[in-house]
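Hey, quick one: can you model this chain's 3D structure?
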Amino acid sequence: MLGAAAALSVGLAGCGSAEESASAATLVASTSVASSSPASIDYTSLLIEPSDIDAGWTLVSTKPEQDGITGNFGNSEDTEAISTSVIVHEDSETAAAAVAAAKDAVSQEAGGATFSPADVGVGGGILNDQSGTTVVVFGEGRAFAFLEFNSKTGERVPAEVAIEIAKVQDATIKAGVK
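Sure thing. Here's the predicted structure for all 178 residues.
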């Protein structure tokens, strides 16, 4: 899990392409303790829909992860990007450990900034980085979720907007992970 801290610097550097902004979430997801579920499961249904974000948003790409999925979303002006990763673990304790590890890794890469509690899922937290990147992490049962919001203009997404989108992601996980 220590490799996640070094890898997160890519995502916290600012908004690039949807694929670049997804690298932090992808690396956190892939360095988390993985469950033993078969890799052949399609986890696409665990992602939010573009319309859950706002009008004019599209799902740019998806990337299967071991025991999960990463989705990259972009707005029609190509000024904002959201990457969301959901990883399903064997149990809720492992998912909670992934949340704690992600918070530690992101905090280190953000120069020691700390997550504020977020009323989403279990152990939810939000961090607004000075570069215009906002990260929300939480657990939900056996699932770990990592959402990264990036802006090419350097403006941070308002915390309440990021948390509302994370709550929709949480509801999607609740409906899909049994």
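One thing worth noting: The CA atoms of residues 56 and 77 lie 8 Å apart.
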